[in-house]
Each structure stands twice: as structure tokens, then as C-alpha cells.
Amino acid sequence: MSKVSKADDDLRKLLSEKRIKGIEDRQVGSEVFDSMTLKTLYKLSKMGHIHILKGAISTGKEANVFKGYNKDNELVAVKIYRVRSSDFKKMQYYIQGDPRFNVRTSNKRQIINTWVTKEYRNLMRAYEVGVNVPKPIIAKNNVLVMEFVGDEEGNPALPLRQSKISNPQEVLEKIVDYVKILYKDAKLVHGDLSSYNILINDGEPVIIDMGQGVLVNHPVSMELLNRDIDNLVKDFKKLGIHITKDEIKSKIMDL
Ligand SMILES: Nc1ncnc2c1ncn2[C@@H]1O[C@H](COP(=O)(O)OP(=O)(O)OP(=O)(O)O)[C@@H](O)[C@H]1O
User: Fold this and answer.
1) Which residues are catalytic, by number?
2) Taking the domains of the chain in order of start, what are their residue ranges?
3) Which residue, of 34, 140, 221, 222, has the fewest CB within 10 Å?
4) Measuring CA to CA, which residue among 59, 251, 231 is closest to residue 160?
């Protein structure tokens, strides 16, 4: 059997087994599950990382996040970047200043795949120094599989902006601590930190969405760190906590 017809066959099998929920929904189906993405999902399913893909947890600007189960029936989160609606210019800009990726291409798929690898590596770097992030499992093409953040029944944790927290001061201190560990130990700046990208799981903050994260020697790292801190000041002001940008910055920099 030729390579192409084998891939077609694999796809048909995946679809006929109805292991991907939502694929029947034409709109979601055509935009997210293009044939390359289906092939990638099939490969991941063969590797045991995704056995069943359930409904979407979120439909963001550039990616959809689904709940899934791996072959051992453990919950996973599957983030699929939509090739059609991704902001390639932004991705290219951040990738080009990053010495970890020597990619000089305008090929859209290649840019997305590099972005997904970047998100995986940033999450791993953060995870390894003890920051509370979803543990990354695998990045393949435009698909990232990671630990599911939520309860055992499969209810995903809510973002900070939608959560009711009784201990905002404590949560802020933990987040500032994570930003500091990221900066000092992982040499990373999140770059898109806000109440959208902090989930509250059983009262604990979990930092997500690290695709934009840059190394501290990236030309825009300071600008991004300042913006992250500004966002924390604004978001926690809404929760009744008054802290200045300089106070947070001096905690992070040990001034
Ligand atoms: N590991 C995870 N476990 C559970 N839920 C998750 C996980 N990762 C992401 N989510 C959910 O999916 C949402 C979107 O995730 P994320 O911010 O990574 O994607 P995004 O496409 O960059 O979002 P946007 O385009 O809206 O900025 C989160 O707000 C959260 O509700």
C-alpha cells in the first residue's frame, strides 16, 4: 500500500470509529480538523497519547482546546492550533528573536509547528523548575497534548477572571513567586500573563498558554515582563489587592 493511501485509510478509520467528537459539526470540522491535523491526531492516537477526543473546552482566537483521554483512560488537554486563523506575523516575530529556533521561513505550517514546539519547551522549562503549569506531554505539528487541569470528573479549571477566590493575596503571592522562579531559574518571561492565562484549580493558580514566552535575553523580554506585571497589578486591583508595579518588580528581581 502506498504512503498516501495508508494515510487516507488511517483517517477513514479514525473517523469511522467516531473517536473525535465534534467532527460531525461541519463548521468546527472544516476549520480545525483539516486533513493534516487529522493525520497528526491519528499518529498521536497510535502512540497512545490520545484515545478519545471529547468536546471543546475552549475556542480561542488561534487554537481550540479539547478534553481527551489517553490509552490509559487518563484525562489530557489537547490544544489544536488552527492553521487558517493563526497570527503568523506575531509568531514569526517572537520565533526569530529566539536562539533556540533557527527558523527562517514564511511557510505557515512550519511557523505554527515551531510555535507549538516553543510552547511545549516553555512549559517543560517552567515545569522543571517547579512552576505550577500543565505538564506538557507531546508536541506534534499543530497539536500540543498536555496534562488536563481540572477535577477528576473532567470539569476543567476556570480562568482567574471567572473564578471566585477567597484568598486573592495568597494567590497573588504564589503567582509573583512563579514569575520570579521563571525569570531567575528558567530564564523565561511568560509574555502573555493575565487573568485569562491563570487557571484556578482547587484554589491553586496554574499558569497556562506559554507559546509567547521568551528567554530573558530576547530583545523584547523586559517589555513583556513589564506588561505581565502591569496585568497582575490591574487584575488583582479588581480583587481588592493594592500593590504597585515597583513592589512586584522588586520581588521578582530581588531588589
Ligand atoms: N491544560 C489545560 N487543562 C484544562 N483546560 C485548559 C488547559 N489549557 C487550556 N485550557 C482551557 O482552554 C482555554 C484556552 O487556552 P489557551 O489560553 O492556552 O489557548 P488560546 O487559544 O491561546 O486562548 P486565546 O486565543 O483565547 O488566548 C483556557 O482559558 C482554559 O479554559
Assistant:
1) 192, 209
2) 20-147, 158-253
3) 222
4) 231
Question: Strands 143-147 and 136-140: what pairing?
Answer: antiparallel
What is the torsion angle, in degrees rounded to the nearest 10, for the CA atoms of residue 36, residue 37, residue 38 and residue 42? 100
Residue 60 Cβ inside 6 Å of ligand 1? The answer reads yes
Q: Which residues contact 145 (CB under 8 A, 6 or more apart)?
A: 44, 49, 50, 68, 76, 77, 78, 79, 136, 137, 138, 139
The pLDDT tens digits for 196-246 are 999 999 999 999 999 999 999 999 999 999 999 999 999 999 999 999 999
Could you give the 3-state DSSP secondary structure of residue 35?
helix
Quickly list H helices, 47-107: 88-96
CA–CA distance, 34 with 112 (Å, rounded to integer):
14
Q: Ligand 1 in contact with 75 (CB < 6 A)?
A: no
Any atom of ligand 1 within 6 Å of the Cβ of 111: no
Q: What is the pLDDT of residues 149-177, one digit of tens each?
A: 999 999 999 999 999 999 999 999 999 99
Grid cell for residue 204: 491553586
Q: Taking residues 172-194, what's their average pLDDT?
A: 98
Q: How confident is the model at residue 4 (pLDDT cuts 50, 70, 90)?
A: very low
Which one of 209, 212, 231 would you pick to mutate in the ligand 1 pocket, going by the greatest count of ligand atoms within 8 A of its CB? Answer: 209
Q: For atom 16 of ligand 1, which residue has the closest CA?
A: 209
What CATH superfamily classification does 158-253 receive? Transferase(Phosphotransferase) domain 1 (1.10.510.10)
pLDDT of residue 105: 82
d(CA 52, CA 76): 10
